[in-house]
Fold this sequence. Notes:
Layout: H1 2-23, H2 41-52, E1 55-64, E2 67-75, E3 81-90
Antiparallel strand pairs: 1-2, 2-3
Amino acid sequence: MRLILTAILLTATLLTATVVEAGDRSAPGHIVVAQSGGKSLNEAVEQVRRQCNGRIVSADTRVKGNREVHHIKCLTKDGKVKTHRINGKRRSNG
């Protein structure tokens, strides 16, 4: 019983160390993408859906400079397609 408990604790310790190591992206050669401000694509789609009171035709995210820009097309009740551009999250290299 004591041997099994020791093996379980040792395995848990090794797994924890592996997870911490995998999460450390500050090492040289790694690019860190930091996201702040702005909306996710899902949040932007919901915002446009409420605003245009129509049907969402398409939604995609493009990167312009250091910021994501969500392009969302909405079919309005009168049959017109309007494109909404919503600022997404900022990106930066670390």
